[in-house]
Amino acid sequence: MVSQCLCIKNILSICLSESFTADHKPLMGEAPEVRGYFLGCGFNSAGMMLGGGCGRELAHWIIHGRPEKDMYGYDIRRFHHSLTDNNRWIRERSHESYAKNYSVVFPFDEPLASRNMRRDPFHKALTEQGCVFQERHGWERPGWFNKDGAAPVKDYDYYGAYDTPKNANYKYNELLGKEYTFSFPPHHDVIKNECLTCRNGVAVFNMSYFGKFFLTGPDAKKAADWLFTADVNKKPGDTYYLAIGGGVAEHNWNHISTVLQDQGFRCQLADHSEDMGMISIQGPKSRAVLQEVLDTDLSNEAFPFSTHKVVNAAGHQVRAMRLSFVGELGWELHIPKDSCMPVYNAVMAAGAKHGIINSGYRAIDSLSIEKGYRHWHADLRPDDTPLEAGLAFTCKLKSTIPFQGKIVCFTIDEKMPMFGLEAIFRNGVPVGHLRRSDYGFYIDKTIGYGYIRNPDGGVVSADFIRSGEFTLERMGVTYKAKAHLKTPFDSENKRVKGIYD
């Protein structure tokens, strides 16, 4: 019977069309357009292999409203609705998915198909300054900045198929090819410079791909209380501005919309993601730069951490938020679309004497893990709790209750890259794996975060962590690791408060 099934499968794969999706992963979950309509399709010639587990999770999803396991990577809501309605995006990305079916998956690969679908107001200026873009949620977001000039993304050439001429002198593709390694890439020092300039001076990050939503209406306060873990009712009001990581914007939009409908809240959710840009100015010299641009006092007393104001920047009204995802003194500027370039130019002009540079998300990834800030679906998954993740401070509770699993920071002394999924051993016994890893340039070490469990079934206490000898396994080789109860970088959280000793 098995051989007959395999034979039938082989015939089907030859004679019939197959369902390859835009990212070579299945499409599952409730359709964003129609409540109660669930998808379980697009298995990329792997339906017999994935069908059992995916079927079980889909059944749980239909009955309980969510899957039992982490299925985020298969959730249809990982794609923005403007992409799933675009025939060019579907055609090109599904072709590349099939063309690379058996390709080795390298850590920093990027698609060549269906690029430049969503571009923010800074795109042209940053391209001219050597920006090597990443594609996320359809957006072109800065990855890192090439010092050898512009490397624009070209139209998809189908790898020369269908009588399509292959792109010649394609600098972006050449730079991607140099990333096809499990070692440090040739531009490792470029990313290092972006990181250390942020740590020691000032850098600008274009974060415009973030989702930007407004929650308004008479029940907005009730909805916010229901939706968010933290107490967000600092002042009476019926409007909330939500800035959401671009890669999960569609997922968040659908979740919030579903809650508003199910709970009957009298409020509206409006998407202004395409109407606004967002830059983040970070580093010890960020205050000196922005004090020349913004018409407000930026001192700690007048503008404390985790507050925001609507201010004028170079004659344009912007929302300034004193926040940081890299662990430095800094502000985000949320800017109306038509004002983006004038404000950006003013920031760069004011920062010139301070050595300001553009930096990308490769630097953000390094800086954030060095500081211990969590990334959604890299460090955090739907099946984690805030307590396990060390995020109890974001919740309306205080607790010292021990728990079964805990996210722990690890560093190794060897100059060896790690990328996540490396096994964690305690006293020679496997206790977990790294969720995310990168190189921390300020501490000059590879750093990673992973959840560990007590193999005896007990709690993971501070003593359990301190008393163990840990190793990390990368490609069959183990490396001695040091476990940290706090981030090894600025554990007292001084730098975000503007305290530089």
TrEMBL record:
Domain (Aminomethyltransferase C-terminal): residue spans on this chain: 406-489
Residues making up the signal peptide according to the UniProt record: none
Pfam families reported for this sequence: FAO_M, GCV_T, GCV_T_C
Annotated ranges, domain FAD dependent oxidoreductase central: 64-119
SUPFAM superfamilies: Aminomethyltransferase beta-barrel domain (SSF101790), Folate-binding domain (SSF103025)
Domain GCVT N-terminal: 238-398
Family to which the UniProt record says this protein belongs: Belongs to the GcvT family.
Stated name of the protein: Sarcosine dehydrogenase
Listed GO CC annotations: mitochondrion
